[in-house]
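In this section we turn from sequence analysis to structure. A common task in structural bioinformatics is to predict how a protein folds when a small molecule is present, because the ligand can shape the pocket around it. The inputs are simple: the amino acid sequence and a SMILES string for the ligand, here 2-acetamido-2-deoxy-beta-D-glucopyranose. Study the lines below before reading on.
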Amino acid sequence: MRNINGRLTSLIFFLTLFSSLSKISTASDTITRTQSIINNQTLISTDQTFQLGFFSPGNSTNRYLGIWYNNISIPTVVWVANRENPIMDSSGILKIGDQGNLVILNGSDHVIWSSNRTNANSPVAQILDSGNLVIREEGDTNSQNFLWQSFDYPCDTMLPGMKLGWNFSTGLDIYLTSWKSADDPSIGDYSFKFEPHSPPQAYLWYRSLERVRIGPWNGIQFSGVAEMKSDSLFKYQFLFNQDELSYSFEVLNNSLISRLTVTQSGEIQRLAWIEGSGGSSGYWNVFWRSPSDRCDNYSQCGPYGICNIQSAPICNCMQGFEPKSAQDWYLRVMSGGCVRKKSLDCQKGDGFLRLQGIKLPDTSLSFVDMSMSLRDCGQLCLKNCSCMAYSNADVRGGGRGCIIWATDLIDLREFAGSGQDLYVRVSASELGGRHKKRRVAIIVSVTLVSAIILSGWIIGCCIWQEKKKKKRQNSNPKKGCNAKIQEIPLFDKVGGTFRARDKSEESRKEELELPLYDLGTVASATDNFSNENKLGEGGFGPVYKGKLADGQEIAVKRLSRYSVQGPDEFMNEASVIAKLQHRNLVKLLGCCIHGEELMLIYEYMQNRSLDSILFDQTKKSLLDWQKRFNIIIGIARGLLYLHQDSRLRIIHRDLKASNILLDCKMNPKISDFGTARIFGGDQTEENTKRVVGTYGYMSPEYAMNGLFSEKSDVFSFGVLVIEIVSGKKIRAYFHTEDDRNLLGHAWKLWTEGKDLELMDPSMGDSCSISEVLRCVHVGLLCVQEHAEERPTMSSVVLMLGSENPTLPQPKQPGFCTMRSLAETNGSSSAKKSSTINEVTITTLEAR
Ligand SMILES: *[C@@H]1O[C@H](CO)[C@@H](O)[C@H](O)[C@H]1NC(C)=O
Ligand SMILES: *[C@@H]1O[C@H](CO)[C@@H](O)[C@H](O)[C@H]1NC(C)=O
Ligand SMILES: *[C@@H]1O[C@H](CO)[C@@H](O)[C@H](O)[C@H]1NC(C)=O
């Protein structure tokens, strides 16, 4: 896995051949006026960390002067001198010029790059252990006296000790710019730059458009970068005074190699080098990235909208505000933002609403006073009718300083457990003066609704308790009924959706926003759950097609009382999906809770599930290669989102062809989260005695030992890929000659170099051979016996998306033969699996 990860990183960023590098080394870190560096000579810093010399990036043959890590197995360039002006051959020379500057000359002695003049008497250039290339007077090693340094002219990479930002006395603005491509280090479309307004912020720019806003700095972290708060690996420094605006970081543990970079694809990434062990090579691990979700998109929810990645839809208006255009909002076009329900009346007196856990709005036009207390800040804001909001500028020591916004509030997001308080001006009537009548109405509806829900709930829980009693005591820590009840406290009707709310901050995090449908609506939509409308039988019970009065088609999952899965899994699914939004995940529209009836309402998928087409002799030709490849990529992205990008780490645990739904354009959507598990922050593996999943798709370690992790989903994904390429079912495939199953068959073809024979003949000529081969290769990597050798989903997505990735050789898959599968079944007490082929099985292992 490390291997792949590593290779990929190199592919994406560098693809660097470095054919001529690192062979000849002058073993020196300095050149003087009389020395020079030619094509294949390098300088190496004292502690061997960095190397300087000429190189060719990626597939290019152009030569550039650059700095890269000396001891890292993946060529990683951190700085390029002549990024806009390559040398076309190997004639380049680096030396110290007449004006005490560094110059690069080409074969015809033309200066193709030079640093600023320094007028030094006896200048030397030195590559330092920090990766900084400096010019200094010979004998003067005081860093204050450096005459020029490459740290002032970074490319796409920020190293520890480097400062980004502004030097106000010289006007120098230091910022990062992406490479154009892996082959071309010239300035690309993305830049990461601090803006010297007050308080300062940084933006990731796409050309001249704000892509992501980072900041403002609140004394501890950038508002909106929750990860910085609990970081024990790095020390961040932010300075803003008359002389400078600067941001820098240090690595607390010297043995950690880390860098911050702006990628060509438009991400800011903090990476750390993970050394390989046991023969595998190391790789760059992404510690933090931005944008990491849709709420990071600049102004995703427009003015006065608040983005919360865990709510569905992700945009909400602040209290006291409503969508500017209800129509747009309904259609999920939310960038228009929100407007006040009641206009302000500055003379009669307005008030402030406190919003908690907020990434502060854009401060590019705001005002800051570091000496003011929050109280004075509020007074000042109240007096000035154009003041829209205020907040502490520094959260340390209980908060101090004052930021005032006199413009629309833009680009806010809400965080669970992080973020800070923002006080927003609203009319006095928003604060206290609700009309009595409305209040009564709300109380009545709240009481009614909660009574209904609680009763449904208690009944549900009783069923669950009953089931639980029958089962053997489960060692797995589970939330009990009480916890469940608390998750859905009082309900408050907000614009047609019910929104669970509770005053305590803890449960605000758990806020579950799900429209509730009443039983009547669902029953009439599905023609009273008629057999004609039945789509099939899932793990929960029957699934029905329906049509709402407004014409929207829905799929209704009805929890049957006799189903294997119980109310706890049902609610697990509801709460998991309610927090997720991705185009490759099926969308939950709402739920219906009525007495014992528990139902989930989904968007309807015209093309049903993947297995109903892929394994159908007549329909399978609908899936040409382009569609299949699109499906593979879509599933990979959906799964990556679950594993990594959704803020929750979710293991699906039951990925299979029948859980992949297809919309009218054959876009895949992962469904059935009944068995999904949300993982805690640093948990990587869980052991369960309760194995749920579907044989054939289950990884060896999960099926046999109940160990599941992201890598067990990767295994299931690999099986799916092989199924999609071959058009054959994992469970239905028996090779006539021996006991190989589909994976064994694929493996045999691979080892014989006949992998193309795996291809489903019904795809005809639609194939891209290289894509098919890549998919088979990646599929086999995913189903390797040992979990640690399987790639992560982020690697998988990269591998599938790269044109010519260098992939490691896969090892023999787990569960290659029918025998090994049967052995597994034998080791568990459950025999259900032998009769239920495609249905999710739940077993309790007897040990
Ligand atoms: C700004 O640049 C000047 C000239 O290079 C330098 O002397 C000064 O130390 C710099 N200021 C800061 C805060 O880095
Ligand atoms: C620094 O990191 C290395 C390797 O990652 C580790 O072995 C060592 O214990 C760490 N040192 C400290 C002080 O944390
Ligand atoms: C209100 O605040 C804005 C922004 O800080 C400022 O430009 C304006 O002069 C203030 N108006 C009054 C009357 O103080």
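The radius of gyration is 30 Å. As an exercise, try to locate the residues that line the 2-acetamido-2-deoxy-beta-D-glucopyranose site and compare them with your own expectations.
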